[in-house]
Design the sequence.
């Protein structure tokens, strides 16, 4: 069955809000990193919003996560500190895991 215009505009609004959040998060992290490290080098490759189920069973419903990929692995510790400090959106983000991927 065809979707109503309201459902489509609501879905588009949600996509827009998610993209605005990603853009603001990226800009805020880049600004804080540039200030602390006294550099103009861009560090964030991409940011994705995801909902994942807890593999340990602590939560019954999917939990929201932010996946941040960086250009430079040397920036990971500082970005984790920035996120945990509360200076981004006045919210202390929990950093759960850090992965290093080698590019061939």
Sequence:
């Amino acid at each position: 069955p065809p979707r109503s215009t309201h459902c489509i505009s609501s879905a588009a609004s949600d996509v827009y809000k998610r993209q605005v959040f990603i853009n603001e998060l990226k800009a805020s992290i880049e600004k804080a990193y540039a200030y602390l490290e006294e550099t103009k080098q861009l560090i964030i490759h991409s940011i994705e919003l995801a909902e994942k189920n807890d593999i340990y069973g602590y939560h019954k419903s999917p939990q929201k996560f932010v996946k941040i990929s960086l250009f430079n692995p040397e920036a990971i510790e500082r970005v984790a500190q920035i996120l945990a400090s509360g200076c981004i959106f006045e919210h202390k983000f929990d950093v759960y895991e850090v992965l290093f991927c080698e590019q061939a």
In short: Residues 73 and 102 are 10 Å apart (CA to CA). The helical segments are 5-37, 76-85.
